[in-house]
Amino acid sequence: MQNMARKHSAGDSPETGVLSSPFAGSWYPGDPEQLREFLREFSAETEADPDTIALIMPHAGYQYSGTAAGLAAGKVRGLFFERVILLAPSHRAYLKDQFCLPESSYFSTPLGKVPVDSDAVKTLLRDPHFLRSDPVHRNEHSTQLELPFLQYMLKPGFRIVPVIVGVCEKATIMEAARMLKPLIDEKTLVVASSDFTHYGKDYGYVPFVHDVRESLKALDMGAFHFIERKSPEEFRLYLEKTGATICGAQPIELLLRLLPESAECELQSYYVSGDITGDFSNSVSYVGASFTGSWRAPENAEEFAGELTENDKRLLLELARATIARKFDPLRPLPDLSKLTNAARKKRGAFVTLNIDGRLRGCIGEILPLRPLVKAVAGRALDAAFHDPRFYPLHEEELGRVTIEISALTPPHPVNSWRDIEIGRHGILLRKGDAGAVFLPQVAPEQRWGLEETLVHLSMKAGLDPDAWRNGAEFEVFEADVFHE
Q1: Shared domain check, 284 and 353
Q2: Which residues of the chain have pLDDT under 70?
Q3: Are residues 279 and 374 in the same domain?
Q4: Residue 184, helix vs strand vs coil
Q5: Distance CA 438, CA 353 (A)
Q6: 120 CB contacts (<8 Å, ≥6 apart)?
Q7: Hey, which of 36, 112, 371, 461 would disulfide with 437, CB 3.0 to 4.6 Å?
Q8: How far apart are CA 393 and CA 382, in angstroms?
Q9: Neighbouring residues of 415: CB distance < 8 A, sequence distance ≥ 6
Q10: pTM above 0.90, yes or no
């Protein structure tokens, strides 16, 4: 396995290249006419539904998973989408809390080339969890086996955003959902690529030995029940409880966190490879499913307008503390937020910082204005307390000693040169390649650093050489309204 995807600059344009599928002629027919005939047969029994907004499709060799994939893909036959977001698991590269995008501008199958949505890729690369690597994508069948179905079913003119999803904590999946949501509109199709349970000694998963076929169905449909409910939390807990080996579990969870509340799920196909081979000692399950509804058109990120009142700040600090406390005492009441002004309800980035006796105890935030400030504060308070990888989770006895600080951010914007950065006024986001780091505006004054010294420390925080900021780095700046208990 590869340990890490190769890193490239988020500021550079992706290489104008073509990734040709190595799976044509083996996992599916390499002859275009034979491939079209396969795709036609797989989807013949499905009628298109113009309200379809998302699919779950398996990704094994077509002789096994083709029917399930085709019956799902047939729901979008003849429809037009401008963008297809393809979420797929990583089988060969280990990606810890990472999402991999391609470098190349096109993917190629026997049916022709599919363009990559380079603007969407550039947007996603603003988040440090996203990187790009052609080697990872070249060898990953979970994305590439879906492409011929999309080419055959959809009207021409769509672009793809292929996202290979690594092994991610829940907080990372939620962050990815926040990055993806602004890219989704009524002309977007989202596809989660996943096989279902891998059963047998070959897969290291033998939870039962009797009535294998029916037991597999009960196990798989138990997971699908929570997909139908559009409940990512219950879906994740079910997999933890049963150990069900659904290889695309995290792409599915990410899809569930993207779906609008109005979406309805329909199972299109279910069977296991043992139904084809007659061998149930080692068997893989296949599900094809579709979702209908209407994506809620995301609001444009609003420029900050209006100042937070002192009452806003007091309530937000109370909310942060109460949200953390409820992890220890679920009956702890939340503050009455009815008196919050519109300034506290606008979409805005935020960081929540925890200190004990003047020492950092946790700090996590989000820079982009992707959700209302009040929700960002509640979510990031939990992350700072329990998910900052630099610290062990907060203990209940520490809560009384913690002081909470909130930084409410303005939207970041690029600067032409590092010389345009103002210490004490600007928070700084540095990106070079796939490395990145951020300092809040108050960091440099607290440390009594000048501008160049600040950038040296920011480079080192990003895992770069101390002078890496001098050449090839990109900078964005933002301002912050900082308040604390």
Answers
A1: no
A2: 1-16, 296-306
A3: no
A4: coil
A5: 14
A6: 83, 85, 159, 161, 183
A7: 461
A8: 10
A9: 421, 475, 476, 477
A10: no
| Confidence at residue 296, expressed as pLDDT on a 0 to 100 scale | 65
The β-bridge relationship of strands 83-89 and 159-165 is: parallel
β-strand 264-272 against 402-409: which pairing, if any?
unpaired
**Nearest Cα residue to 180 out of 236, 80, 253:** 253
CA angle 214, 220, 222 (to 5 degrees): 100
Tell me, what CATH number does 378's domain have?
A: 3.30.700.20
Q: Rounded to the nearest 5 degrees, what angle is found at the Cα of 56, between the Cα atoms of 51 and 61?
A: 130
Burial of 157 (0-12, 13-18, 19+ CB in 10 A): exposed
234 and 355 both lie in a single domain: no
Query: What are the pLDDT digits (tens) for 7-17?
Result: 333 333 344 69
Q: Same structural domain for residues 419 and 354?
A: yes
Asked if residue 408 lies in contact with residue 348, where contact means CB atoms within 8 angstroms, the answer is: yes
The answer to whether residue 301 is domain-embedded is: no
Distance CA 390, CA 154 (A): 46
Nearest alpha carbon to residue 258 among 48, 85, 142:
85
- Chain centroid, CA 278 distance in Å: 37
Instruction: Print the domain residue range for 344.
Output: 310-484
Q: How far apart are the first and last CA of the chain?
A: 48
Alpha helices in 243-330 (DSSP H): 249-258, 273-277, 310-325
* pLDDT on residue 143: 96
Do both 25 and 128 map to the same domain?
A: yes
Residues 26 and 55 in one domain: yes
Q: How far is residue 394's CA from residue 324's CA, in Å, rounded to a whole number?
A: 9
> What is the per-residue pLDDT for 395?
96
| Block residue for tokens 């081979």 | 277
Both tokens assigned to 12? 């550079």
Q: How far apart, in whole angstroms, are the C-alpha atoms of residue 192 and residue 358?
A: 45
d(C-alpha 377, C-alpha 381), whole Å: 6
In CATH, what number is assigned to the domain containing residue 38?
3.40.830.10
For the chain, how many structural domains are there in total? 2
Contact criterion met (CB below 8 Å) for 352 and 363: yes
Residues 84 and 170 in one domain: yes
Which tokens is 202 given? 């070959």
SS3 72: helix
C-alpha–C-alpha distance, residues 378 and 386, integer Å: 13
